[in-house]
Design a protein that fits this description.
Order of helices and strands: HHEEHEHEHHEEHEEHEHEHHE
Oligomer: single chain
Family: Belongs to the GTP cyclohydrolase I type 2/NIF3 family.
Keywords: Metal-binding
InterPro entries: DUF34/NIF3, DUF34/NIF3_sf
Number of domains: 2
Radius of gyration: 18 Å
CATH superfamily of the largest domain: NIF3 (NGG1p interacting factor 3)-like
Protein name: GTP cyclohydrolase 1 type 2 homolog
Largest sheet: 6 strands, mixed
CATH topology of the largest domain: Udp-n-acetylmuramoylalanyl-d-glutamate--2,6- Diaminopimelate Ligase, Chain: A, domain 1
Shape: elongated
CATH architecture of the largest domain: 3-Layer(aba) Sandwich
Length: 251
């Protein structure tokens, strides 16, 4: 696969219309462009010194992440960019468009948990950061928590704020700590709210609203959209080797 092939694939997968919405908002793009011919692709949630070093160790030609290196964390972006340049690795990140996509983070994690995606919410300038999922048969809160912990391979924080069975869930992967999103989930008749970060207000509003709250990590609630994207690329370019880059459970 050539870099130009990859660019065309991204344009088709996310659509030109959607990408145009965030064109000048640093929500997707290349951090570095290395060799033109790509034979091995790696993916992970975060662009960090550790993830880039893992990409180098695994001889990756193209690294795709959900997050770019954080600009406000002084020095990290410069260092990871230098490692990418030295190793001649291309890096591409896709943030809000992957949250919004029908194959993206929210839809993919719901599918993994056997929920059917039935609605979207948390609109951010035409992009939807959240999804609503439904089960055919409701399950106990504790069973849902266990399924999530098995999927994420990490313990989660949980607050059981009602005794209802879980049939309908609202999901905002990553930093879905907004009380407004929780209010929308309640108004959409959800039994639980699942996200990847929380602050005091998240917990307090969930308790006030009597909606069950489950919080995993930012990193591992957002890996599955990248996994889905990797599978889509593999279907088109079967000769391409695709691997998941290891990240530690640090949150």
């Amino acid at each position: 696969m050539l870099i130009s092939d990859f660019e065309n694939f991204i344009m088709d997968a996310f659509t030109k219309e959607k990408l145009e919405i965030v064109k000048n908002k640093n929500e997707y793009g290349f951090t570095n462009i290395g060799k033109n011919n790509i034979s091995k692709l790696g993916y992970c949630t975060n662009l960090t010194i550790e993830s880039v070093q893992e990409a180098v160790k695994n001889n990756v030609d193209l690294l795709i992440t959900h997050h770019d290196a954080w600009e406000w964390m002084s020095g990290i972006k410069e260092e990871v960019t230098e490692i990418l340049k030295q190793a001649n690795i291309t890096h591409f990140f896709v943030h809000l468009p992957l949250d919004d996509a029908e194959f993206g983070n929210n839809c993919s994690i719901l599918k993994k948990l056997n929920f059917k995606t039935v609605d979207k919410f948390s609109n951010e300038e035409g992009m939807y950061c959240g999804r609503i999922g439904e089960l055919e048969e409701p399950i106990k809160f504790e069973e849902l928590v266990n399924k999530i912990e098995v999927l994420l391979e990490e313990p989660v924080r949980k607050w059981k704020n009602n005794d209802k069975l879980i049939k309908r869930i609202a999901v905002v992967t990553g930093a879905g700590f907004s009380a407004i999103d929780i209010k929308d989930a309640v108004n959409l008749d959800c039994d639980a709210y699942f996200t990847g970060e929380k602050i005091l207000y998240t917990v307090q509003y969930a308790q006030f609203s009597k909606i069950n709250l489950i919080v995993g990590s930012h990193t591992f609630t957002e890996i599955f959209g990248l996994e889905s994207l990797g599978k889509m690329i593999k279907e088109k370019y079967s000769e391409l080797e695709i691997i998941r880059i290891h990240e530690e459970h640090v949150e």
